[in-house]
Write a structure and sequence with these properties.
This protein is α+β, with helices and mostly antiparallel strands and about 120 residues long. It has one domain (about 10-35, about 40-105). The chain is about 10% helix and about 30% strand. It has one helix spanning about 65-80; strands at about 15, 30-35, 40-50, 60, 85-90, 100. A two-stranded antiparallel sheet has the order 1-4. The protein has a two-stranded antiparallel ribbon with strand order 2-3. A two-stranded antiparallel sheet has the order 5-6. The longest helix has 14 residues, at about 65-80. It is elongated, with a radius of gyration of 20 Å.
């Protein structure tokens, strides 16, 4: 488990969720329907939730470069899709925990350019 801790409790290094998270609400649905040439409308056969991307912009903070690189390596290992899915657990304020089974797709490629920070 790697919590998005913020800087509370002396947790170093820390992950902080930044504004701009997407994909945490309803997924898109595929609705399957049959149309009849003699009737208006269509008959719904079923609906299925489609896959979606969840984007979590995070800020990783460490006390020095060595600690930061070790933590990023731990995070990359935990998110390795070859090892199976990761469970993303989040709690809205005053709500129940919600869990999504996720696979890492991209975003941690690592750019240290000035305009990427």
């Amino acid at each position: 488990e790697i919590p998005l801790t913020g800087l509370r409790g002396g947790a170093w290094p820390a992950l902080m969720l930044q504004p701009g998270a997407t994909g945490l609400d309803l997924p898109p649905y595929s609705v399957h329907m049959d149309e009849s040439p003699n009737l208006d409308g269509a008959m719904v056969r079923g609906a299925r939730a489609s896959a979606r991307q969840v984007l979590l912009p995070i800020f990783v903070y460490g006390i020095d470069r060595k600690t930061l690189r070790q933590f990023k390596a731990k995070l990359a290992g935990a998110l390795n899709p070859r090892l199976g899915y990761s469970v993303l657990t989040f709690i809205e304020q005053g709500g129940e925990p919600r869990r999504l089974k996720c696979y890492y797709v991209g975003g941690m490629e690592g750019s240290e350019a000035a305009d990427a920070s």
